[in-house]
Amino acid sequence: MSAASAGAARHAVPAELLHDLRTPLGHIIGYTELLMEQVEEEGHDAYAAYLQKVHTAGDQMLALLEGNFHAPPVAEASAGGRGGADDEAPRLSAFILANREPILVEWEAFARTCAPASGAMDVEALRDHANEMLTVIAADLDTPQGGRAQREKSMGNAPADDGVTAAEEHGAGRAESGFSVEQMISEYRALRASVVRLWTKARGAVTPADVDDLTRFNEAIDQSLSESISRYSEDLAYSKEMFLAILGHDLRTPLGAVLTSAKFMLETQELKEPTLTLTSRIASSATRMVHMIGDLLDFTRSRLGGGIPIVRAPAVMGKVVHDVVDEIAAAHPGRTVQVDARGEQKGEWDCARITQALTNLVGNALEHGRKAAVVTVAVAGDDQEVTVAIHNRGAAIPSDQLNGIFNPMKSREPTAASGRPTGNLGLGLYIADRIVNAHNGRIAVESSEEHGTTFTVHLPRHG
Amino acid sequence: MPMHKLLLVEDNEMNRDMLSRRLERKGYQVVLAVDGQSGVELAGTEAPDLVLMDMSLPVLDGWEATRRLKGDPATAHLPVIALTAHAMSGDRERALAAGCDDYDTKPIELPRLLGKIEALLGAPSARGAPPGGGA
Fold first, then answer.
1. A contacts of B106 (beta carbons < 8 Å)
2. How far is CA A244 from CA A65, A217, A297, A448, in A?
3. Taking the model in full, what pTM does it have?
4. Which residues in chain B touch residue A34, judged by CB atoms under 8 angstroms apart?
5. What confidence tens digit (pLDDT) does each residue in A86-129 have?
């Protein structure tokens, strides 16, 4: 996968994540509204307050998801910087410096045509960057350079500067104000075109020295463009991940309110059908969201460079697996998950993390396995390690998808006709893999029509 | 007035359960299908009055299922409301191009969906409760 397509795929993740969270949230809201009607008819005022709380929390979460569907800006772009040294340089550089105003007027007119309709950063601030870039370019044209420096520059490898360049600031500003890469490139094209048009008009006949100037000018523009794009991409990726982290965090409070209220209602042991089933479904959807948001936060944490921290403590794998399966089975009525545990089960692991990893794997097996078939979880232990093998029947994973199945960008397979991804949160496998890796273990996958699909987690007993 | 029969084509078990319960409370009879293929078949055999079609379905997706319904003289008259989880621009146009009569997004706002169902059925249905109870 090329760097460019990896970048594009990474940006595709957030929208899908938010989309996936909407499904259990829709269940929570729908079942709650249904229950509200029900208890009102039956006159169960005691539950009405809890349901109202759940409903309000559901609306809050929906507002968070919908209001934030488009990634927000990050840091303030600092406009400004030092002014350029206006010297009496000949030719193109002198021309640029002397004609800043008409060049910028043309450029600004163009920038306005491609500014996003909503939330556009003011063109004046970006004009400062363009002005600054013109200064830098003009100065560059006056600096003698050998053939090698020229080649390097034309390949985007100019020596690193100590500070942030005007072009980088420009890229950051563009990312912040929601410009697309194409729009930003168009701006550079416009800047280049204004300079060349105005200059050739002023010069009349073009001399060999002019050609050299033009070449260097083009290279300087390319260098600026490459700096802007690089900074733009970094900022965008960072802001999307930071945005997800913040969103995940914001969702936790209302989600907690949903879970607490639903659990309270269930704990009264007074609920009759269908209220009991409906309330359990609210609780299991909320639990599902808790897991998804947990994965989401871990995803952003690992992407933002934090890794997944683990704290080891003595544990028995058979018990961990049974707990996972009990919770998951409760959320999947009508499905069967069988546990088979044998051999030495003890070791030192981060139980909460292993629970999270196994929940993802067993959840996947239920989701992608044939509905009528049993999912089995086999735990085995030897001297070195404990293995947990999760097996389901159903369509095989195509062999070209097995490679890289733990990559969050690859785990989604678009449906043939709609071109839209199906299935669920593609992060589950990625997080499971990261957690097992943090325990110095690994996950192996085998899949065929004949034998079904098995994910085998290999965990060393002790780090 | 006779009870209207709706065919709900939806692969997600909870969505199916929730929406069918809610629609039944509002006085509709609901027939369920879990994928596009069985949706097309049931539309032929169950003679529903209207189809609620999820768009991302296994086996045969909602877009193709709708095209088949609209391409078959036996079912072409059935109103189809597309349900998608994507509030993306363009989905509405795609749904209408596939032959859907209307379009709604998830999470479902029941009063809004009921309004669309009633508009397509041509008359308000018998309703157990006012829309948007307690919201």
1. 22-23, 26
2. 10, 40, 7, 36
3. 0.59
4. 18, 21-22, 25
5. 333 347 888 888 888 888 888 777 777 665 543 445 666 667 77
